[in-house]
Specification:
The chain is of the alpha/beta class. It has helices at residues 23-35, 53-64, 77-85, 94-105, 120-125, 138-145, 156-159, 166-170, 174-183, 199-206; strands at residues 16-19, 41-44, 70-76, 111-117, 196-197. It has a five-stranded mixed β-sheet with strand order 2-1-3-4-5, sandwiched between helices. Helix 9 crosses helix 10 (199-206).
């Protein structure tokens, strides 16, 4: 979608851009936006594809110049950690690449980089149980999640179904998830294979909790 070089701010409101790399995140935030009446949020891109880390970083830089008060870059770590293990000798690893990007972004106060390890499903799981278990694969977290949401699937139909969308289902337990996730702390490059759900910080930034 084409945009001008500046983003006209709404009077009295801060405006946010949330940059994600997966469709499930888009659907989740679309439902959040609907139920929380968050008209001051843009979800970028609208139809994400499997993008390289460099593409996502460049998207953050591009959006940085569009007048947003805050840009949130939300990453799933499962693919990054998988690709990191596949690094060939002499090549830059994915974790090294991500660390380099985050270091560059630190000079921009409006940019916040957050991660879910392994993925959004772990955030969903924390609505139902407190756990610090590390899931190396997203499907492992999803399998655990299905103990509480038996019909869970990574589809638009499931996430956005009328009168019972994913955000509606989880909203009553949102504060529990926030507290469980906050106890896990923030991502640390020294211990990358640790369960994290920095989605909780999005709720803080947007003033939902």
């Amino acid at each position: 979608m084409a945009r001008n070089n500046t983003h006209k701010k709404r009077i009295g409101k801060k405006i946010y851009a949330i940059i994600v790399d997966g469709e499930t995140e888009v659907w989740y935030f679309q439902m959040m936006k609907r139920h929380e009446s968050l008209l001051n949020i843009d979800i970028r891109p609208e139809l994400p594809k499997k993008k390289k880390l460099a593409d996502q970083y460049n998207s953050v830089i591009e959006n940085k110049n569009l007048g947003y008060d805050k840009i949130i870059w939300l990453l799933d770590m499962d693919t990054i950690l998988k690709e990191d293990k596949q690094t060939k000798k002499g090549q830059q690893s994915k974790l090294q690449e991500l660390k380099r990007y985050i270091k560059k972004l630190k000079k921009y106060s409006q940019v916040e980089v957050l991660v879910n390890t392994p993925c959004l499903e772990f955030w969903h799981l924390l609505h139902f149980k407190e756990t610090s278990k590390y899931y190396a694969q997203c499907e492992s977290a999803a399998k655990e999640l299905r103990q509480y949401l038996p019909n869970y699937e990574k589809t638009q139909r499931y996430y956005k179904q009328a009168n019972n969308d994913i955000y509606q289902r989880l909203k009553p337990l949102q504060e529990t998830a926030h507290n469980n996730a906050k106890k896990l702390g923030r991502f640390d490059f020294e211990y990358p294979q640790s369960a994290k759900a920095e989605m909780y910080s999005v709720l803080d930034i947007l003033g939902i909790i």
